[in-house]
Design a protein that fits this description.
This protein is of the alpha+beta class. Helices cover about 45% and strands about 15% of the residues.
C-alpha cells in the first residue's frame, strides 16, 4: 500500500514538473514569436508590437528562472541596463560569451547598456560591475571583451573615478547630470581635473566643446614661467571610442597676452557658471581657467559670435584648428 501511494505521488510530481516545463517552454516560444513578428514589422507603434514590452519582461523573468537560451534575444534591447548588470554579475562567462557573438557595434551597444546608458549607474552597482569585469582573467577568451566593457563602464561613469568639478558648481535639478555628463566627456578626451591647482603660480585655460553629433574637442593652454605657452588639442569621436591627441606646441608671450586680454574683456572670472537659455542638440562650450590659485568655469550652450564664443574660439585658432562644434 505504501509503495502504491509512493508511486502515485511520484507520478503526480513528475507530471506536474513536466507540465511546468512545457508551460514555461510555451511561454518562452510565444514571447520569442511576438518579438520576431514585431522586428519584422519594424514599427514599435504597430499592432504587431503592442505586446513587445510584455514579451521582453517575460524573457527577463525566464532568464532569472534559469533559461539562458533567451539571452541573445534580450541583448537586442540595450535599454535593459539593470538586467544587463545583474546578468553579468551573476554569470560573467555566460553573459560575455553571448555578447561575443554580436558584431562589434552590437557589443559596443551592450557595453553602453551595462554602463547604465546616458544616466549612468548608482555607485554600488558601478562598483559591483567593475569588480566583476576586473576579475575576468587574461587567460579567458572573454578577456578583451571584458576590458572593452570595463573601459566603457569607467568612461560613462567617470565622475566616480575622477573629481573634475568643485561640489555644487552646477545648480538646479540638472546639476548632478551635468557633473556626470561633463566628467564622462572629459574622461573620454583623456583630460585631467583643473580645479585643484598644484600651486598659486599655475595658469591654465581649457575650452571643451561637446557637439550633439560630432567629435568632442578640447584645447588646453598652459602658461610657462617665461610667459610663453604650451598648447594642446584633443578630439574624440561622437561615441568616445577613438581619441586623438596632437603634440603640444609653443606659442609666444604676445599670443598668451592677447588671449588673456580677451578673457579680461569678457570679465571671465566674474562670469556666472551657467546662464539660460539652453536648447536641444547644438553644442556645449565649457571654458575653464586656473590663475593665482583660483579656479573658474563658465558653461554656455551655442555661444555663437558672442564675446564669450569669440574668446573661446581664440584657443582653437592658437592651436591651429578651427572648431567644428558649430553654434
Amino acid at each position: 500500500m505504501r509503495a502504491t501511494c509512493f508511486l502515485i505521488a511520484f507520478s503526480v510530481a513528475v507530471s506536474t514538473a513536466s507540465h511546468a516545463d512545457s508551460s514555461a517552454t510555451e511561454t518562452r516560444d510565444s514571447a520569442l514569436r511576438g518579438i520576431e513578428v514585431c522586428f519584422r514589422r519594424n514599427e514599435v507603434s504597430s499592432r504587431e508590437c503592442k505586446n513587445l514590452n510584455k514579451d521582453v519582461e517575460t524573457l527577463v523573468a525566464l532568464y532569472r528562472q534559469g533559461d539562458k537560451t533567451v539571452l541573445p534575444t534580450l541583448l537586442q534591447f540595450t535599454y535593459l541596463t539593470d538586467f544587463y548588470g545583474e546578468a553579468l554579475v551573476s554569470d560573467p562567462d555566460g553573459f560575455l560569451t553571448a555578447v561575443s557573438y554580436l558584431p562589434e557595434r552590437g557589443q559596443q551597444a551592450v557595453a553602453a547598456g551595462i554602463a547604465g546608458g546616458m544616466w549612468g549607474l548608482t555607485r554600488a552597482r558601478f562598483d559591483g560591475i567593475r569588480a566583476t569585469l576586473m576579475k575576468v582573467p587574461d587567460s579567458s577568451s572573454n578577456y578583451q571583451l571584458a576590458r572593452a566593457c570595463l573601459l566603457t563602464l569607467e568612461t560613462e561613469n567617470a565622475s566616480f573615478l575622477v573629481n573634475y568639478f568643485p561640489a555644487q558648481i552646477f545648480t538646479g535639478r540638472s546639476g548632478d547630470f551635468h557633473v556626470h555628463w561633463f566628467s564622462r566627456e572629459l574622461y573620454a578626451l583623456g583630460e585631467k581635473p583643473m580645479w585643484t591647482p598644484a600651486s598659486g603660480n599655475e595658469r591654465t585655460y581649457r575650452i571643451t566643446v561637446l557637439p550633439a553629433f560630432r567629435a568632442r574637442e578640447s584645447v588646453t593652454l598652459t602658461v610657462m614661467p617665461d610667459e610663453t605657452g604650451q598648447i594642446k588639442f584633443r578630439t574624440s569621436d561622437a561615441h568616445s571610442h577613438r581619441l586623438n591627441v596632437d603634440s603640444p606646441h609653443a606659442i609666444s608671450p604676445q599670443q598668451v597676452a592677447d588671449f588673456t586680454a580677451a578673457l579680461n574683456r569678457i570679465q571671465f572670472w566674474q562670469l556666472p557658471t551657467e546662464v539660460p537659455p539652453r536648447g536641444f542638440d547644438g553644442a556645449e562650450w565649457i571654458l575653464e581657467g586656473v590663475q593665482d590659485g583660483r579656479y573658474h568655469l563658465a558653461h554656455r550652450w551655442c555661444p555663437g559670435k558672442t564675446p564669450f564664443g569669440e574668446a573661446a574660439r581664440d584657443l582653437f585658432i592658437l592651436v591651429g584648428h578651427k572648431s567644428s562644434g558649430g553654434c
